[in-house]
Write a structure and sequence with these properties.
- The protein is of the alpha+beta class.
- Helices cover about 40% and strands about 20% of the residues.
- It has 2 domains: about 90 residues, Arc Repressor Mutant, subunit A (Orthogonal Bundle); about 150 residues.
- The strands form 3 sheets. The chain has a 5-stranded mixed β-sheet.
- It is globular and about 60 Å long.
Length: about 260
């Protein structure tokens, strides 16, 4: 039986960007494969044991044990609560960062500034066409390595983004308008909930614009990271002339949805 992973803060990872080399190995396992393994267990909230490692990477017991110890030494995993007397591990803060790593080509400050400017431009375009999305962006905040004015080498641009239904839409109208938008956009539903989720998905896709280097984080995640942020956009005024410094847990509370 798997033990649910305990909720924890991610402050231990710090606000600086961790650089992962896709060619690096942990006990013979390349980092992209390690990333996929950690992401699988992290997203499901499962603990990890020796058998899990052995089955996933096709290792024998001794090799799996060495891998666990090596991963722990890298702070990718940390000891969890034993299950039936057997050691268990959970994905640590650094492991969560690796689980989200994209291994994209790195870029300089000029490119980072272009990505941020382009994102804010799309936020303003979405605001002008709000009825086409049925949702609006109420806050955008930058965090991570891009806040370091001296940094010139980046792997992605981390943004907290809070979106919400248009305030003028009541509950019943949201349902009907979402169904109409889903049909107008030529979407096909695999699940009954797909139609209600489509407005948020449509807006997020538009904002990302297929830019893999933009890492969007829901505002709810801001409560997990005790790190500096800079608010770039907020309603009702829109884009801020000067970024507003803040702390992420405060930001999450300030923009908590209904």
């Amino acid at each position: 039986m798997r033990c649910p992973r305990r909720a924890r803060r991610c402050a231990a990872a710090g606000s600086g960007e961790l650089k992962f080399d896709r060619n690096e190995m942990i006990e013979g396992i390349r980092l992209p494969w390690v990333r996929d393994f950690l992401a699988h267990f992290s997203v499901n909230g499962w603990s990890i044991n020796e058998q899990d490692v052995a089955e996933y990477f096709k290792l024998d017991g001794a090799h799996a044990d060495r891998w666990l110890r090596a991963a722990a030494a890298r702070d990718l995993i940390e000891p969890g609560e034993p299950d039936d007397g057997k050691p268990q591990w959970t994905v640590a803060a650094t492991g969560s960062r690796l689980a989200a790593a994209k291994f994209l080509p790195r870029f300089n400050r000029k490119r980072a500034d272009q990505l941020i400017a382009g994102f804010l431009q799309r936020v303003e375009t979405a605001a002008a066409q709000r009825q086409d999305f049925l949702m609006e962006v109420c806050c955008v905040a930058l965090f991570g390595s891009c806040l370091d004015g001296a940094a010139e080498d980046f792997g992605d641009v981390d943004l907290f983004c809070e979106i919400r239904w248009l305030p003028e839409l009541g509950g019943g109208e949201r349902v009907e308008r979402a169904r109409s938008l889903f049909k107008a956009d030529g979407r096909s539903a695999a699940r009954i909930t797909d139609k209600m989720f489509w407005p948020a998905q449509k807006l997020q896709r538009f904002l990302r614009a297929r830019q893999g280097a933009i890492a969007l984080h829901d505002m709810a995640e801001a409560a997990l990271y005790d790190t500096a942020v800079a608010v770039l956009y907020e309603l009702p005024g829109g884009r801020l002339a000067l970024p507003q410094p803040c702390r992420s847990p405060v930001l999450a509370t300030r923009y908590a949805g209904p």
